């Protein structure tokens, strides 16, 4: 066996490989960059219309990935090999896979996968869609179709291939620790880089002086601006990169707060945008000198496939039809969605074109969307139709000769005037043409319809890739369209449909011609491809269950994960791997999170529900060399767990309480102070609202302690690394520190719900802290004028408001929002005006209104209730629900007008009159007064919409009698006012419940 | 013909070449660096004992080389390919030359030369000795043996090879503009880099914000210090590099003054030193893990040469002896010096070892130091000698038996006691041994003597290179030591002498065995090597003259340059090139400076003395492909002139006067202000001293204008680029601006002398401004405590003082230094104490003393005169010269004692008495008084040493008579005082001329 390549030879081999393809070989950038993307050879050159193919090594610096050289896979510096192909050569995945082969990776022995991974650089205003490439579960490459850079749409789109060289070397050499990678004959990677990892980690995590770095950032930013003012693209870009690196160090030091982060990203993005625009303008002025650079060698020609051309004149009456849309790996959700769409659009289309068929089947894998129509007619039925022409009286002149109108109509239908008949239509007489439509063959009908069918598939996120300009989830690379043995060609995305499909990667030549449509299934089977998603899911489930049984584990299978995995493979083979038992000491949330979220592994639980040191992954391919695949995956998960263990270990030196001082250096927002200051405010607010929320004394104690510690985990390494675990880690560490269970729970729960509709806190302390936290953010940020505007909500205030409301509503807890806002306002470090408080209140009730409307409540009901009870969301909901019932009742048509009359006559008076019962003159008035007093007493006992409505219903005849017989506006001022006073008391019955004037029919 | 390599293939080829040799392939550094040396893979890895072989590309940033993309050869970024070989593999030059062949450079077609170039990085505390490698006059590589880094001696020494990739690509591709270099098939170098050159040049020269960059510098420096405190080597190094780059930008913006530059360098150097020391300590603690890394493949084995071993027992009685010390290219001056040393040490050595010979000849080229001895005896003469032993009376005991003393003596001489004799020596009787010394053969005598002979050669600067630890001008790579056909082997520098010489590079295999000593000359001739320096010089002169004649030029040949060129080649062939006539518009000093200093070309003058558009260079080798060599050289000189023209053009937008405000941003010294402030002081001082220096009114006007403009040229691009042209460019631009000739001249001349012994100003305005400038520097810098200490003189104050003195002495101009110092002191922006002024004065007179002593004047004479006339150097010199004559005269032995008696009796009196002529008692006293009065009058007329000595001579008899007959110390106080008063008047005759008490014999 040939010795595997050493690290430097890997770099040189890739250089040579891509140079031979025609790429320009470039050098690493001379400022610290987080990725090769930031090198101007990528960031700038992907802009504008000129071709550009380049390849280079980029030592990439990510301070927060530093692990002091302890972690096998994570380091503050890693080597990328970056390739840009602009425009898309049509076969970038194949070119990439050939480069792996050039490195000595035999695809037959491994599981190579393209796993959805979209990429975004908030600092550079850049994003793209693509994948991580996995080699046996390990990410070895990032593969992206760039859509935007510097906020500019990229035309053409660039393909970016970013190899992770260490990962590749590890896999090649079988050394699963960076230290052991052979760099050359004599020297190992660790020999040269271990000390650097240790020292830079120390510098980034512990040493770097925050104040000085902030100053550097400012200076770099100003120089970037200065350079831009002078139109100097490259100097500006260099300083933006320096900003970015400095930001990364600050971030690693834990010195960047949430709002500060947003602000800094915004500033960098703006600079990047201006840089990009200046660059494009510069190239334009130079008249795009590279516009005619030839394509790279090895690029595919989309029209190279010979289309089989059986004569379409000899089509059978009916036959099976196959449409296959061959794609690069679709994201699981997109595959699902596309199949659902085809399931409905295809029958509709066939009906529309009058092509009958026996049955149809929609199939799909990540690389193909397939429609198989059984016994499709080869030709439409003939059809005769009647077409209305000009009125008969204008069709012939006095001499009975046809007029121009008649002649023109006949000509347009391709018949003679003789063939027109007269017919009465809608009471008038018209010329009518009988037109016989001969059914057309599928070869004529389908091409445009099929093109449309494909083009109409919609995705959540879609991308462009080539000059055709079409958008799809991922690039479409081939199209099969076969009616029996005849190709029904159509064009889409620069491709022409043919009879050539493709098999499983590596197993087959690129283009596999099919003799006819029904050869398709045998062809798939020969590659172990299961295109039927249901069948594939069952296969996987069976395989997984079998493996679970083999270790005597709980055999239930996570359906959500199963669905996802099902959409990641064409030819599934489940396999089991193990990991070191010691990792089971880590929090289960962490282990499961890593397995499911990062790796799409099925975790394995014992029948008692405990996690076991196994995982199950599903490879794409058969069971050959499954040991190599399992081994690779095991190394990956070990490293990931080691990473988590490293953080936990690092964090164990301090209790949560001891970590609090570090919150001082984490800015929440410049004017609102640090996260420490924020957590102190949260504590204050918690104290006040806990009583309103009716917490017990014990609960209050827990809530206060939880509030005190609520933000401490933000400075733990574990949360810095996996932000989504904030709260969860806080809970874990709190328990480790010996905090009471209830405190730990509240720390975790104060983040609930994690997203709209997510779980609400189960405990009142968790609820209280969560409300306090959100009120603080809302009030503080509104006060410093950072309220959301338009679609912009950088600080997640909408989510905060919705979360707060959801908890109150779900738990049906009364809470006075206005008081809460006042409480939060009192202790902000900045002045909070009445206007600000009002704006916060309006903002929250605005969200509440939306939530209620989305629940399907009537607009007028919601508005009526919120006008009176917006400050107490839970009560408002209860009232809305009740009122909604009332307005549906039959009697409501009586009740509302009666009450409305009382309100309308009094609402603009501008003053409130007292009733003088003794001077009430008429009996009707006296009766009304007695009635209203009775209602008032009832409502005092139970202030609800039901009581109100019951009472008004009872009072309605009295009201109606009153208005029928009494003239309210008596000439005697006293008499009039006394009557008005009674009516005002009626109106006041709805106070605090709803403002019924918002209701329809009021 | 195969297509020449494109740029990226050159990089990849070098990577492959050096990887195959065993070098680790490394990547460019991620902060801007001026050179690959700064990459930690060089700067740190060359420290300590561990082997390290590495190669990498380094895009190197030198802001002040920016030319907006206009210059064919100069750019703010160039690509280096850096190789470090540690330890020296023994044949690094050969490995390097093979790499050029790998790139397709056919050495037979080119002139490849190793031209002395020593390297120093003041920021990194690093230096080494080596060469520029020239390809047809173009520097393509820097080749250095590192001696120190971070102030630490390097053991082992590393070989650093730094390829200039653009230069190599230009030569290979025949594209003599960077824009035209083919980078790959489709893209040219200029396509990707032209805009970068333009933008970065603009940024560095015009845009960068000086204040912000200063702040960055401070922040970087503080972070470096912080990292060092924590023992973090790599982070510290990174920030030092950032300091360095920031410094370079500031420098390019013209914002760094002379003293500030020194200070910043000092700070960076100190940081680099600490970093280096920390790194070494770190490696030591790790126990130098790489210590056993194997040598690179292709390293030479110094003992691989088979030594010819004729039996030394059969040597002829006499024969020719050849010693050849084969070296890597010696610097011209070192070659010269080594040959001179051998010319005297070799005969002395042969005499010492009693080996007669007929004649000897010392020969040399840059690659060989040769000694050829004609008819050397093969064996020493025999010799008998007598050795004194112990006294006879202690040699035998009472019984006549020999004592231990006698036995021991005999034993030590290798004879028996019987063989000892007694002999009377210096009046005592001793035992004596007769020792017969048999003459030894050369094979026994010479090895150690030859080793010593080589080891004793001394050089101005020498270097170490391998484990032998010896130091030489450049590495010694082979030794030939042949007596007739017999090798006389000896060891030096890890080599063993053999019979294997080497011929001209590329013409011969590495090792050319010689059959016997006198085959040497035929061997050299076969390679066209002229080892006889005189013959070689004549050959070159004849060739040059012939070429000069061919264009009808002045045929005189610059002897200094001829001597230098003679020492640069072994096989000279002169050739002529041309350059574009338009460049003749540049100042002649610039053109000639570039040709002579940079390129060692002979400039060509017409018979009228005007420069002609030709140059003559002397290649090493024969005249094959001389057209290619000439063409290459022409391209080089064109580019250099284009560079100068670029600067002149840039500078032409402003007059000198208009440039003055820019001096504000050029710091002279922080406490002393900007260069603008300095030049204003120079103007003030000039005004005052011009009168003292006796300038005419016109001259004063010119001096003031010149002072006003004196420093303006420091901010011109031309001077920023070629500092040595300061003043010269000032003159040129002044004339261009229409300033008067005398002003222009003074601007240039105020820098004279440029070095000790150089030309002094020809004009008084030039003299005056120069004195003013130097006084300002001396006084100001002493006042801020920056006087030179020990060997440290960062601000060149010694040179300033010496220059000032030299001008006054050469022009013999009286000038009151003390007054001048006061004038300068008055206007300094800092307080200048009396002590400071005194220190400046002492410092200057200290230099004057040295100068006079070095001129060979007597120590006592110099001291005597300076004690009285130090403040006026020119007068002091005149007096010294006169006094030196007098002390040599015969009569001086009479004069001095007489005068001395008068002085000695009076010098400690502490008060001065008045003579009361009327109360003088004795005639002797009266005569003496009359004599002294006469002398006084004579001296008043001509206050010179001659007059003084004449007068004293005349007075001597009178003095002597006085002392013979008069008792000065009379008991009568008045009588005594009156006599002392007369003697005091005698003593006073030398006042202001000399303090004769310093003279010997006083």
Brief account:
Two copies of one chain form a homodimer. With 1002 residues, chain A is of the alpha+beta class.
Could you explain the architecture of this structure?
2 copies of one chain form a homodimer. With 1002 residues, chain A is α+β, with helices and mostly antiparallel strands. Chain A is 46% helix and 16% strand. The first copy, chain A, has 32 helices and 27 strands. In chain A, strands 1, 2, 3, 4, 5, 6, 7 and 8 form an 8-stranded mixed beta sheet that branches. Chain A has a 5-stranded antiparallel beta sheet with strand order 10-11-9-17-18, covered by helices on one side. A 3-stranded antiparallel beta sheet of chain A has the order 12-14-13, covered by helices on one side. In chain A, strand 17 and strand 18 form a beta hairpin. In chain A, helix 24 (797-811) packs across helix 26 (834-854), helix 27 packs across helix 28 and helix 30 runs parallel beside helix 32 (973-987). The longest helix of chain A has 28 residues, at 258-285. The first copy, chain A, is globular, with a radius of gyration of 36 Å. The mean pLDDT of chain A is 91. Chains A and B meet through helix 1, strand 1, strand 2, helix 5 and helix 6 of A and helix 1, strand 1, strand 2, helix 5 and helix 6 of B.
